[in-house]
Design brief:
Blueprint lengths: L5 E5 L4 H12 L3 E5 L8 H4 L4 E4 L3 H8 L4 E4 L11 H21 L5 E7 L12 H17 L7 E7 L1 E3 L8 H11 L3 E4 L5 E2 L1 E3 H12 L6 E6 L5 E2 H11 L5 E4 L16 H5 L8 H18 L1
Helix pairs in contact: 1-7, 3-4, 4-5, 6-10, 8-10
């Protein structure tokens, strides 16, 4: 699974991307991080001489791909009021295509691993992240047209299920509700939690990205990334409640507007055929999540 060379990483300050950068550095890979400059940098990475920090201008992208062998795209703009359609298109569609175009112009056989979303599995009415999902679908359509002809580069679309783990923003569902449980909020309003999700630990996603990058395929490869099991959301929150020994009452059904996303589960056959297995069980991962939430609350 060890890689050699120089990797370009977009989204290297994010939840998955920052962990990927650390993993690449452990493998001895030099890393060039593309960043808009607005996100907070990991202080360890900011001080590491093996990391080059670049923007997203044309000149920076030219510098980034010069001599590079791999490209990992984990930059993402979500469907939020602060992000207009242009912002979503620039980050979710245009940035990865701009990087790949430069490899093609140089006739470099770069290996590209592009983060994708499991939301694309469902009809538009089944996701609250509609504009985000549309932008990801637009990227896939353009990539499929691009790879209709032989290209020097190859790309794996890593369709990631419900990723979670330590360090995830408190705005996300699992750390948010975990924080409320640790605080001992008397009653936490929730939906029924009947829908199933494929929860995959963040470090397992990083391993999957590295496995994909070191495997062989031609053209454009669709790769599903998850644990391979759908767990009811209610069961996950009950497990967090138990691990945290929380006095809170979980008000399942207090929120009647059930999220419309159907149950989801990854087909991990491709990854497993190339040597990947999730290393972190749901109980282990949630225990690490609870410990991290407790630590961050103490430090705040």
């Amino acid at each position: 699974m060890s890689l050699k060379g120089t990797a370009v990483v977009s989204g290297g300050t994010g939840f998955v991307g920052s962990r990927l950068v650390h993993a690449l550095l452990r493998d001895g890979v030099a890393v060039r991080i593309l960043s808009s400059g607005t996100a907070e940098r990991d202080p360890v990475l900011a001080a590491d001489p093996r990391v080059t920090w670049l923007g997203v201008s044309d000149a920076d992208l030219d510098h980034a791909v010069d001599g590079a062998t791999h490209f990992f795209n984990f930059a993402v703009a979500y469907d939020r009021p602060s992000n207009d359609d242009r912002a979503l298109a620039d980050v979710n569609v245009e940035l990865p295509l701009r990087v790949m175009a430069r490899f093609v112009q140089r006739n470099v056989a770069a290996v590209c691993v592009l983060g994708d979303t499991f939301f694309r599995k469902f009809p538009p009415e089944a996701t609250h992240q509609l504009r985000y999902t549309r932008s990801k679908s637009e990227l896939v359509s353009r990539l499929e047209a691009f790879f209709a002809q032989p290209q020097p580069v190859r790309a794996a679309l890593l369709q990631i299920e419900q990723v979670y783990g330590p360090g995830e923003a408190f705005t996300k569902a699992l750390p948010n509700v975990t924080q409320q449980m640790v605080k001992g909020v008397p009653r936490i309003a929730m939906t029924s939690g009947s829908q199933g999700r494929d929860f995959v630990f963040v470090e397992d996603v990083v391993d999957a990205a590295l496995i994909a990058a070191s495997s062989e395929w031609d053209g454009l490869q669709h790769v599903e990334c998850g644990s391979g099991a759908a767990t009811p959301v209610r069961q996950v929150f009950e497990l967090i409640h138990e691990i945290a020994a929380s006095p809170s009452v979980l008000g399942f059904g207090d929120i009647t507007a059930e999220q419309a996303i159907p149950s989801s589960c990854a087909d991990t056959a491709w990854l497993k055929a190339h040597g990947w297995e999730p290393r972190t069980s749901l109980h282990e991962g949630l225990t690490l999540l609870v410990q991290d939430v407790v630590l961050r609350m103490r430090e705040s």
